[in-house]
């Protein structure tokens, strides 16, 4: 029976890998799955031999701090490749690590499928050529990803983005307003400071400062702070207590806040794309170590950090990066939007195009079928 070795290095990759492999198991329960991942993969029945999520980081220089541990994990995965002899390796995100593992798969003559492959469409297109040279099957989630990999001769299938099937809210905005105890006259703005403490500490105080200034200008505003998974509400409350605004902390309601809000102020990352799928305008905020920012901006020449802007091909939502991230600039943009609904409507029209570019849905099932096909099992229908 089919043996699949999985390699997922961060919480999001673990989640996406688990969703796909759960579909595989649903079709063929006897498939053996083992390798590297975390909680979501364990819960769906994978044998997890390495959990690297404790050393996951943001940025190039930051990752160097845990380099020795990364190489230990890589050696272990190569050992598993030799000893367990999988029929197929499922590489999910975690690009620098999984590129090296893809090379090892090529050398061992083992097929590999890469879901959320290296972002060669953002910078360093040579990475796409390397993956093509390893014979890695690419499961592309973005349209520009498919194009870049196809250009260098990679075997690529466009499966679309799985968030299309995950991001939804059945309740209408009016129902959500009641749930959040908003009066008829109140206008909601969501604050999304990120899912890591480092992000929160650098972004949330300035977001709250902006909220305080906006409240002085528009007394009808209400602010909800979204608590990401794994972030305790008491921790976020400590920031609110030190601010001059009475913002409410809400957990496990990301999508509801997005749908009910006029717009959100968010850390760069998956939240920006989720908000785009729900057709909610956003102000994207980003602060990284200056070394990482320098590499991204001036060496790799990344034009945008926000996925909605990258997918659309030009800036449709503002990005406040590094020194540009300050309360005064958030306030300036927010007041323009609050005073002119037409600006928000124009952004919403462009966000609809972003959603359309992400495919028609069904990415998880398409990727599961791709794994079964590459593993030699027939499409189960």
TrEMBL record:
Gene3D superfamilies: Glycogen Phosphorylase B. It holds the Pfam family LpxB. SUPFAM superfamilies: UDP-Glycosyltransferase/glycogen phosphorylase. Keywords: Glycosyltransferase, Lipid A biosynthesis, Lipid biosynthesis, Lipid metabolism, Transferase. It catalyses: a lipid X + a UDP-2-N,3-O-bis[(3R)-3-hydroxyacyl]-alpha-D-glucosamine = a lipid A disaccharide + UDP + H(+). It is an enzyme of class 2 (transferase). GO terms for cellular component: membrane. Its EC number is 2.4.1.182. One of its GO terms (biological process) is lipid A biosynthetic process. GO terms for molecular function: lipid-A-disaccharide synthase activity; phospholipid binding. Condensation of UDP-2,3-diacylglucosamine and 2,3-diacylglucosamine-1-phosphate to form lipid A disaccharide, a precursor of lipid A, a phosphorylated glycolipid that anchors the lipopolysaccharide to the outer membrane of the cell. This is Lipid-A-disaccharide synthase. It comes from Halanaerobium congolense.
């Amino acid at each position: 029976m089919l043996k699949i070795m999985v390699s997922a290095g961060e919480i999001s990759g673990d989640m996406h890998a688990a969703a796909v492999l759960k579909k595989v198991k649903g079709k063929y329960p006897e498939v053996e799955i083992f390798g590297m991942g975390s909680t979501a993969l364990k819960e769906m029945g994978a044998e997890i031999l390495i959990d690297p999520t404790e050393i996951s980081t943001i940025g190039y220089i930051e990752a160097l701090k845990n380099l020795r541990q990364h190489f230990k994990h890589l050696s272990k995965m190569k050992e598993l490749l030799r000893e367990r002899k999988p029929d197929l390796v499922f590489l999910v995100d975690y690009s620098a690590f999984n590129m090296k593992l893809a090379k090892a798969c090529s050398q061992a003559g083992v097929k590999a499928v890469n879901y959320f492959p290296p972002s060669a469409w953002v910078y360093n297109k040579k990475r796409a050529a390397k993956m093509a040279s390893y014979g890695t099957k690419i499961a592309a989630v973005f349209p520009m990803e498919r194009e870049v990999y196809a250009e260098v001769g990679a075997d690529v299938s466009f499966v679309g983005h799985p968030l299309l099937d995950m991001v939804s809210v059945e309740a209408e905005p009016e129902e959500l307003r009641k749930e959040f105890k908003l009066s008829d006259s109140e206008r909601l703005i969501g604050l999304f400071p990120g899912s890591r403490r480092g992000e929160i500490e650098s972004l949330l105080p300035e977001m709250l400062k902006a909220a305080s200034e906006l409240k002085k200008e528009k007394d009808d505003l209400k602010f909800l702070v979204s608590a990401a998974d794994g972030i305790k509400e008491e921790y976020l409350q400590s920031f609110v207590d030190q601010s001059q605004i009475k913002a409410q902390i809400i957990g496990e309601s990301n999508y509801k806040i997005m749908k009910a809000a006029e717009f959100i102020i968010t850390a760069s990352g998956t939240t920006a794309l989720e908000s785009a799928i729900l057709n909610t305008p956003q102000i994207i905020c980003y602060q990284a170590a200056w070394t990482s920012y320098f590499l991204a901006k001036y060496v790799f020449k990344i034009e945008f950090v926000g996925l909605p802007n990258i997918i659309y091909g030009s800036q449709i939502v503002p990005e406040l990066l590094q020194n540009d991230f300050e309360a005064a600039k958030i306030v300036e943009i927010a007041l323009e939007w609050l005073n002119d609904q037409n600006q928000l409507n124009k952004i919403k029209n462009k966000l609809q195009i972003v959603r359309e570019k992400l495919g028609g849905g069904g990415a998880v099932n398409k990727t599961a079928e791709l794994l079964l096909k590459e593993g030699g099992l027939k499409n189960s229908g």
